[in-house]
Write a structure and sequence with these properties.
The protein has 14 helices and 17 strands. It is an alpha+beta fold. α3 runs parallel beside α6 and α6 packs across α7.
Length: 489
């Protein structure tokens, strides 16, 4: 039986399809071979030998050797760096980028604004990359978008938020870069809101910790960034009912750890595993950043670093330990109430100023320097503390009466403040008062002294005048008698 034309055509199409499949299979295999040839675990093992900058500080607690290319452990309240490894190296952040995306969004939009999803927002992301299936022309409230970005790491949601806030994804990247510069980042440049690979999209461990510090200072973002799962319910603008679960094992509890405040995962082939985590206990709020690690070691590295921080460092209150900066030698500033009753303190060390010190270090081991620049309202000076040249925190000397005019009314000079700032604390001995009674007595004493000196001067002047007059009179009498008597022959 002779085959029909349709059968022949079908065979031709089938053969062509097979050839196409084989071609792409070989192409994909060829492109995959270099990646398969890379032993990423071996590279991670090699990275353990990289220098840890914080371990170079004399007598500083030795930090753990980890497989990440770069890592940092930062105390968020003070900005003190406890652990540092390649903290300024420019690396790819992957989805940890979304910390900045949410930070910019929350500062430029209200949470009830509706965010519409454009064709570009939905379809410009890489196929198979992280998303939550939102369709073109659907819409979500901004707050739900932030949950989608942080919990579901949804790239199309990051795109939609960027367009909504800035008008375009490129313009939003510009806002991200402006915010980064404002925070003090020096090795960061963003080109998108989601973190998918671009060679011009990078940050450093130090900069990412700075961004995370700002993120976790926002109460709403802290709540969203510590959410294990979120239920998206159907609405007229979004018809699906689904739940997104966080991939951060500390947040979900898969790795149990006390005091977790949130964080963000990230991965691309070029960035490898990236992770940001925040935990708070023992009076410290630690932010850990790990860049370029292999799964699941990004979590193990974070665990090691958090344990290292909480085990080796402690909070030290400045006003309870500082003795060098005091004003007890000044005669007219007393630690008691004046004759009029409730005298107000003039200067005091801020009782809330504290340092983060290695547990093996005593307060007396520190050096300090006084700075008059970049102080806040009601602050006279800032005292910055160092241990073997490593910054460990700062304290401020404040106008304790909180009056803006206090500097003009006080008799304390800038030099006095530098050499003898008050040591503040809950006890009255560390609070500076001005004793009006003593001051008045001193003024009266000085005035009386001046009057007495004037009287003595006048008496001495009168006495000298009378003495000279008597001498002149006596001298004149003798001359007269000698002349009257005349010479005798």
């Amino acid at each position: 039986m002779k085959p029909s034309k349709n059968t022949k055509a079908g065979r031709i199409l089938l053969a062509l399809f097979i050839h196409i499949c084989l071609f792409f299979s070989e192409t994909l295999s060829a492109s995959a071979e270099p990646d398969e040839a890379v032993d990423y675990l071996a590279l991670a093992e090699e990275r353990k030998s990289l220098e840890i900058q914080s371990n170079q500080i004399e007598n500083w607690p030795a930090g753990p050797a980890i497989g990440a290319q770069a890592a940092i452990l930062l105390e968020a309240n003070t900005g003190i760096v406890l652990y540092a490894k390649n903290v300024d190296e420019r690396l790819y952040p992957a989805s940890t980028t979304k910390l900045m995306t949410c930070l910019v969004a929350v500062e430029h939009a209200s949470m009830d604004e509706m965010v519409s999803f454009s064709h570009d927002a939905v379809f410009s992301i890489e196929p198979g990359s992280s998303n939550m299936g939102i369709d073109e022309n659907e819409a979500l409230p901004m707050e739900e978008c932030l949950y989608g970005i942080m919990v579901g790491s949804a790239n199309e949601v990051a795109n939609a938020v960027a367009e909504h806030v800035a008008g375009s994804m490129d313009a939003f990247a510009g806002m991200m870069n402006e915010k980064a510069r404002g925070l003090g980042c020096t090795n960061t440049h963003f080109v998108n809101a989601h973190g998918l690979f671009d060679e011009n999209h990078y940050t450093s461990a130090s900069d990412l910790a700075i961004i995370a510090r700002a993120f976790f200072q926002n109460e709403l973002l802290s709540k969203i960034g510590n959410t294990a799962s979120y239920h998206f319910e159907p609405t007229p603008t979004q018809p699906d009912d689904f739940v997104k679960r966080n991939k951060h094992k500390f947040i979900t509890g898969e790795i149990a750890y006390d005091g977790i405040k949130g964080g963000k995962t990230g991965y691309t082939d070029q960035a490898r595993q990236t992770l940001v985590t925040c935990a708070e206990k023992k009076g410290m709020k630690l932010i850990c950043v790990v860049l370029k690690e292999e799964s699941p070691e990004q979590f193990n590295d974070t665990l090691k670093l958090l344990d290292y921080g909480f085990a080796n460092f402690a909070v030290t209150n400045v006003s309870e330990n500082e003795t060098k900066y005091n004003i007890s030698s000044a005669r007219f500033f007393q630690t008691s109430y004046d004759v009029f009753g409730n005298s107000q303190p003039i200067l005091a060390l801020n009782p809330n100023s504290y340092l983060i010190l290695p547990k093996t270090v005593d307060f007396t081991d520190l050096t300090s320097e006084v700075s008059y620049g970049q102080t806040g309202k009601n602050q006279v000076v800032e005292i910055r503390y160092y241990y073997n040249n490593a910054y460990v925190g700062a304290a401020t000397v404040d106008w304790a009466n909180r009056q803006p005019s206090a500097p003009a009314e006080s008799t304390l000079t800038a030099q006095d403040a530098q050499s003898n700032p008050a040591a503040d604390g809950p006890s009255p001995e560390k609070v500076i008062f001005i004793n009006v009674k003593t001051l008045l007595i001193a003024v009266l004493a000085v005035t009386a002294g001046l009057i007495l000196l004037t009287i003595l001067r006048d008496l001495l002047t009168s006495y000298n005048f009378l003495t000279r007059r008597k001498r002149r009179k006596k001298s004149g009498s003798l001359f007269k008698r000698s002349k009257d008597d005349g010479p005798t022959f």
